[in-house]
Give the backbone structure.
Amino acid sequence: MSRAGRRRTSRSPAPRVAPRARPAPVRPSRTTLVLLAIAALAAGIRLIHLGHDLPYLIEEAIPLRSALENWSLAGRPDWNPHRFHYPSLVYDLHLATQILLSAAGRALGWWRSDADFLIAWIVDPSPMVRLARALHVLADAVTVFAAGRIGERLRPGAGIVAALLTAFAASLIRASRLVYTDTVMAALAMLALERALAWRDQGGRGRLVASAVLAGLAAGAKYPGFTMLLPLWAAIVVRERGRSLPLILATGAIAGAWFLITTPFALLDSATFLRDVGFVRNLAAAGHLGDFDRPGFAFHLRHLVSDLGAIGVVALAAAFVRLAVVRGAAGCAWLVALAFVALAMPVALAKIEVERYLVPILPLAAVLAAWGALAWSDALPAAARRAAIVAAAVALMVAPVVHGGGVARAGAISTQVEAARWCEAHVAPAELMVSELYGPPLTGHAEQAKLGTLDVVSAASTDAQQRLAARRTFAFVPLPIATVGRIANPVADPAGRTEMIEVTAQGADLSGAFYDPRVLAGATWVVTSSAVRGRFAADSTRFAAPVHLYALLDRTGSVAARFAPHDGVDGPEIVVYRVTDATRAALAALGALDPLWWTDVVPADYRVRATARRTGGAIVAGGAVPAPRDSSGAPAPWVRSLAPLFASRFEGFATAMTIEHQLAGRPAEAWPWACAILEIDEANAGAWYTLAWSAGARNAWADALPLLRRGFAAQQRLGSATSEERAVLAQAEAASDRGADTHSANAGGSR
């Protein structure tokens, strides 16, 4: 090529490339904006009473309490929840946010260290609880939005109605401002379902994977979240038909993987995981206190009617009718119906009556009710259709908005808080108050003393320690009754081989031990709560001991205060009884409390089987039921076998009673509780010293000496005996040798 040619070529203009068109911004649709506004409204009405009852924390708040209690015990954040009645996603969520709150508080000067943060949690948990509750309000807002998105996929307009129904559902409002795993599971489950419907309509690997991941996360919040795989798998079968199996296996594996990512200690602490999952599995069949014999269908149906209104429940039924009788009416609705049935059937059939179990079910019911009402309205002639749709939507909303709005306004405080404030004004620190569960949330001296043994307290600043020490305490002992669960106990044979033997199919059957009237010796106040009392009274034959005690209090006690729900104050009815001279006379007529009082509730079948196991003998049908003591007066073999049960169910209560009586200077009342502990837990130093104190105060060294000797020997075997204990024992032996006892202390088997 010539130079001129090259010049011409080099001067040729470069081809012009059109600039890339900028993608148009993705703007949310008007419907999406409306749904976001409804979700914000839902959050707003739940935030009204975010601080209700604070600084008292009366709710279970299991994920939050477990996270901070484990942190306090370990001295560092502990990602192993050590209990798996729930998976650990919500536990981890709360632990992570509380770690951030601790760091933020240190930066802002609220507390000096993590130890100070944990002391602040004990003294006034308000900041921690508000943050925790806010997370659940956010979860509920997500649920409302997801319900709207799902409803819109079924029929335009149904989503807005469904979102409003979900926003004002009273059960959701009550649950979302408390720390329950159910709200997080519901949010993730609804998102998983929404993605499954999106994949059914539009396909796409991302939507499919997202639905599986969200189902695994929902299960990581609470085990029933796995049910969200059912509508996803059903959509796969319909869409892919013969090619569905690989996708079903893949999505199941994805969900399982994300469950294990969020609950890794299911593998790392598998023994605890399997034990607790077994407990949860048996719970539905065994029932709980107040409902051992009937399924929860009627209870949950009543709450469903209360949440959605009668018209809403009719619309829900109409949705299922339409799915059954109108060909081609299903669309995606049948997948929502499948999810509803998968979650609702176990709750309806289980012998459990708990309102929050409706939390993941109500959004699905709201979607189906909205779709059912509007879909049937679509069948009307065109002239009447629009008016019918508006009328149906309004009719659906009236009852939930009125009832839910009332629930949103109520609940600033509860009857339990009212009772606590009354006690603070009327109960002296040394006056023993024995209370049922769901009574006033007071701090007992025994609980305060236990907190003082935590390493985190010694690691805290002087200011934090002083705030903990200044916390107001009472001679307050709650009755630690069981409401759920089968009770089994490990029993070893002479060769050391262990077998689990059932004590009772219902832990609540052991609660009668705490209602022995002699337990109240030395008490000034007794508190009952309808949350417990109503359940016992409903089955008065089975729970004769509590009912008998209620009758005794009503007959001889004086009602000092009564707190019932009123004017927006919620909670159980609480009755505070003052123990009168007539009550004391009735208690005295029953005699002293035997240290093995708690064995009275152990069934004969366990006594026989455990005796045969411990002694290597055979079980004799129709034979005599073994007594609590052998011929020498020592605890019988079957009683000895119950040491683990005593430690978990009774020893804490006996310790609290021992401490409160000793602090108040009541040696006669402290005596049987110290003996009760030492009969089973011989090396318990606290009970040993209390018994010695009581023996000295009552001049009853001879009666105390056998237990003091056994206790000292047990401590020697453990290498924990001290010179002070040796001196006390020598004093007891010398006093006994001199015949210093002037009366019998009725040690009940300490000989």
Residues 48 and 93 are 23 Å apart (CA to CA). The beta strands are 433-435, 476-478, 487-492, 498-504, 525-529, 558-563, 574-578.
